[in-house]
Design goal:
about 170 residues; alpha+beta; Umud Fragment, subunit A; seven-stranded antiparallel beta sheet; four-stranded antiparallel beta sheet; 1 helix; about 30% strand; signal; protease
Length: about 170
């Protein structure tokens, strides 16, 4: 009876501990997105895993959700932010097509991760220079992303070296 009681008490704690340690075992880092900028993909306050990337080792891929630091975007604070890679070096991006979509290299793109009622604000065109990325939140109406920083040095683009992780979304 005593062994059964120990098993009944210990197993749930072990299982819970394995779930928490699972991220560390896989080498992922845990982040919590405090804002609504990535909804509906990542809801405010939700925790997600990200595969860490050494500075300078990120190989840009359109559609990646990345964790990055860009202190100039946050009044000098070196706080991690989360956005989606929409354009990579050599791309030309603008908004909007006749039906209100983002235009990448002359073609309106499909963005199934956006909320059905998402509205775009016109911008661009912007050519993404070598070594830089165009990042946007999935909640376009509430995201201070590349569009908001067009007047910054870099014309709204972010150095790829600012990426510190790639989200692993389930």
């Amino acid at each position: 009876m005593r062994k059964r009681l120990i098993v009944l008490v210990a197993v749930p704690w072990l299982v819970a501990g394995c779930g928490a340690a699972n991220s560390a075992v896989r080498g992922y880092h845990r982040y919590t997105d405090p804002s609504v900028a990535m909804e509906p993909t990542i809801h405010a306050g939700r925790t997600f895993d990200a595969r860490p990337v050494d500075r300078g080792d990120y190989r840009p891929k359109r559609g990646d959700v990345v964790v990055f630091t860009m202190p100039s975007w946050l009044n000098g604070r070196d706080t991690a932010q989360v956005k989606r890679v929409v354009a990579i070096p050599g791309d030309r991006i603008a908004c909007c097509s006749g039906d209100g979509r983002v235009v990448l290299n002359g073609t309106p793109i499909s963005e199934p991760y956006l909320a059905p009622d998402a509205r775009e604000t016109p911008f661009g065109p912007v050519s993404v220079p070598a070594g830089r990325l165009w990042l946007m939140g999935d909640n376009r109406g509430s995201s201070a992303d590349s569009r908001v920083h067009l007047g910054d040095g870099g014309n709204g683009t972010v150095p790829a070296t600012a990426v510190i992780g790639v989200a692993v979304l389930k």
